[in-house]
Amino acid sequence: MHLIRPFAGLRPIPARTAEVAAPPYDVLSSAEARVQAAGKPWSFLHISKPEIDLPEGVDPYAQEVYAKAAENLKKMLAEGVLVRDPAPCYYVYRLIMGSHSQTGLVAAASVTDYDINRIRKHEFTRPDKEDDRVRQIDALNAQTGPVLLAYPAAPQVDEILAKASSGAPDADVTAADGIRHSLWVIRDDETLAKLTAAFDAMPALYIADGHHRSAAASRVAAARRTANPTHSGSENYNYFLSVIFPHHQMKIMDYNRVVTDLNGMDAKNFLERIGKKFSVQASSAPVKPGKPGEFGLYLPKQWYRLEIRPDLIPVADPVARLDVSLLQNNLIAPVLGINDPRRDKRIDFIGGIRGLPELERRVDSGEMAAAFALFATRMEDLMAVADAGEVMPPKSTWFEPKLADGMVSHVLD
């Protein structure tokens, strides 16, 4: 079996692409999705967030929700809004956000390679979220939410993708958030074969985002394999929808922290406690960390620059040396008493896309007592954690720009 393979994608006709393409299902609440899809009958949110077409208050995990998704997909197919390519293809997917551009490959990735950890993970998954994706895949008989993957340095692949995307795109849409999504179809057998061989030569791929989607695909494949007496390994359910970018083009933004209180201390005592492990310097301007080991701290109306003592950085441990770990292990847990950031209600997380003003707003409003700005996790750090078979701390990475749902789906029959 190949690490990746082409597939006959299900996608909107060009005239409908702008109407269909939608934000990822997991970045919108049901209420937000209702607003975004209002007056847009072909928005993919009707498939990815089908509860918006049912009475408000419906359990988004109810069976009727998944049935509604299948009904909406069937309608889009019947109306010719979505059509399936007649033969297996690869697709080049380009994202442009401001001055940032990244160009990757839409492909079907091997569940077997996921199961043996050649497609490497760095997060734990929650059973309830896996169950949701399993039900969605089974109801639609398709994977509609792509898994975001990264491939290690491969200039040959970069060159093929650049050449394949040099002409006019087959689909091109600029979303409401200003991000441009462009798609080119690769049909010629020679290029398809070159890409398949190039990926087969890679030691590993890395999940950037989509751990629940890939885990669900694995579970669906296992169930269908067991139920299929003629299983051969070539069936579509043995692969999952993915978009694979070169690791050096991917953009990880900072994932910042805010806390509700200073654990009984006033600002002066809090700063004194921090000073035992960090250098602390007041700043007249917002502090956006420019290197690993540096942090911004915001207290009401005042920024500080923190830098951890070098001797406290365990350089040989790929998880413990992450900035999110350094802050958690040397300040948030021992000073603030927040030992379980996954469950403690005293801490919240803010994606870097919102900027430092959001940290100031949350603190100056009185909602939060302090905010911490972090240096963004690097792709090399994520890959080192995955290679070690370890797990990243919660809220370690915020990838931007986000993929759109609906550009290409992978049918399992």
Overview of the structural elements:
With 413 residues, this protein is α+β, with helices and mostly antiparallel strands. It has 2 domains: 4-251, no CATH class; 255-375, 2-Layer Sandwich (Conserved hypothetical protein from pyrococcus furiosus pfu- 392566-001, domain 2). Helices cover 31% and strands 24% of the residues. It has 13 helices and 21 strands. Helix 6 crosses helix 9 (211-227). The protein is globular, with a radius of gyration of 23 Å.
Q: Compute the CA-based radius of gyration.
A: 23 Å
Largest sheet: 9 strands, mixed
Strand element count: 21
N-C termini distance: 18 Å
Number of domains: 2
Helicity, as a percent range: 25-40%
The general outline is: globular
Structural class: alpha+beta
Low-confidence stretches: none
Give the overall pLDDT as a whole number.
97
Beta-strand content estimate: 15-25%
Helix tally equals 13
Topology:
Blueprint: E1 4-5, E2 10-12, H1 17-20, H2 30-37, H3 45-48, H4 63-78, E3 82-84, E4 90-97, E5 100-110, H5 111-115, E6 119-120, H6 127-140, E7 142-143, E8 147-151, H7 155-164, E9 171-174, E10 180-186, H8 189-200, E11 205-209, H9 211-227, E12 239-246, E13 252-253, E14 255-259, H10 267-274, E15 278-283, E16 294-299, E17 302-308, H11 323-332, E18 347-351, H12 356-364, E19 370-374, H13 379-387, E20 398-399, E21 410-411
Parallel strand pairs: 6-11, 8-12
Antiparallel strand pairs: 1-5, 2-3, 4-5, 4-10, 5-12, 7-21, 8-11, 9-10, 13-20, 14-18, 14-19, 15-17, 16-17, 16-19
